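Have a think about this chain, tokens included, and walk me through the fold.
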Amino acid sequence: MWPSRLLMTAISLATLALLIASCAPVAAPATRAPAPAATKPAAAAPTVKPAGPIPTSKPAAEQPRYGGTLSLGASADPPSLDPIKEASGTLFNIYPVYSGLLQYDPLANEKIIPDLAERWELGADKMSYTFYLRKDARWHDGKPFTAEDAAFSVDNQRKTSARKKDLLSAISGAEVAGENAVRVTLKYPSASIPAWLAVGSMAMAPKHVYDAKRDLRNEGDGTGPFKLKNYSLGIAMELVKNPNYFVPGRPYLDGITAYIVRDRGTLMAAFRTGRIKLPVPYIFVAPSEAKMIGGSVPQAIVQPYKSLRFGIFRMKMTDKPLDDVRVRRAMYLATDRQAALRAVGEGEGTLGVANIGGEWAIPQEELLKQPGFRQPKDADIAEAKKLLAEAGYAGGLDTKILVRTGYGADLKVAEFMTDQLSKVGIRAVVDVQESATYLDRIDRGAYETTTSNDGIDITDPDSSSSYFVKGNRYFVSDDKLHELFQKQVGTTDPAERKKVVLEMQYRVMEVAPYVIALWFRHYIAFWPEVKNYKAGTGQHNNSKYQDVWLAK
């Protein structure tokens, strides 16, 4: 229990009670108090198309305005509020309190732009980055943001958080490089450092707070556009406008309230009633849910969202029979990715080897010619059976697919794979375990195969590639893959790096340590009064809301 979060204003509790009360899947009985007029969906929703042309000029109401509180819907509390230690997507609720050195542009979310660093440069030897800091940023307690804060934050991100330690593994340290500059030194050249430091979870934290032994697990002190006002664990988090934010005229909102609604049906019902204006991105609205929202809340804005999530089937390639590349290749070839888009992705999604479709991925027209992706599947199935016979499994073999309970997409991928593998004589059964047992067995390697709905943070090759070929958490043991990964990490010329990244993906096809059945397509839905918001890329970005405003 976090003592400082036990108190909530009476107004906040009353608001939450109204929220939950309004979330039943059927209309509320007449005895319940009616919703306030400001939050009730309009009775005359625009179900009829206008007779005349839609005006092309913006009405005055479309101009940015100040005021109002944005209501967010979240499904869980973060493990803690410490911006250095934590890396969970559930920190989305507290991200508006903090700033990073860099950030992804909220309206062009794959473009890196300044935040606390006004500019940055790569050293001549490509072994360091220097970030030049703005001079007008202050912590919410009034103290100035300094180069010491930046060096402390970067250095401890990679030391304290197990997840960030992996992401920032190329960094050897951070040091003050002048009154308003910090230098990040590298173990080896890495082109992706700016991309990693722009991720929303890479927040800068106040060194003086840690020095004073204050506990940022329970409080927030950032330089962001909003300040933490109240947090009641499991109920809601209230943020209020930071009047001293370093961006002139921002934020527009008076505040943000993130409600914690663990039950997905209740959360979506709260959205349909308008009590929640925007579910946070890690809710992962599926295509079927997006269609449901479009039918039940026709005035809602529904945007496709590049969540960077994928359904993966892993094979532990260090143990028999999966230490034989012929067996892994048979499983790889048997999988019909186009069928996965229909069965698992609800008819939507993207195909790819180790990178989501884009500048670093094998072009789709080329990918669809490759074994495992080509259609029809006859040639793949025949080759898979031949490989199994050569490996001594002409009569097929048995395997178990480890899955954790409570993750529907994981199970869906597992069930899909049992059907696919059966077509080449592989008899797979699903082994469902509680999350703690599942994670323990994954870490110990106590499994044969496993499926999961996983995700990455950025579209840079380091994110997706390191997930599979760097280190041995997933028991990938191919030396050539490791060599190619390290080569692309240190290649700073984009054209040359792309050649190495493509070679690495073709190598994955050869050794088949895993099958990415599909990259999911997700959506974000929000009410039309939420202005200047665009679905970002990844579950950690576009999370500060400094430019968002409410039309009413």
Q: What stands out?
A: The two ends are 37 Å apart (CA to CA). DSSP finds 16 helices and 20 strands in the chain. The domain at 64-304+525-550 is CATH 3.40.190.10 (D-Maltodextrin-Binding Protein; domain 2).
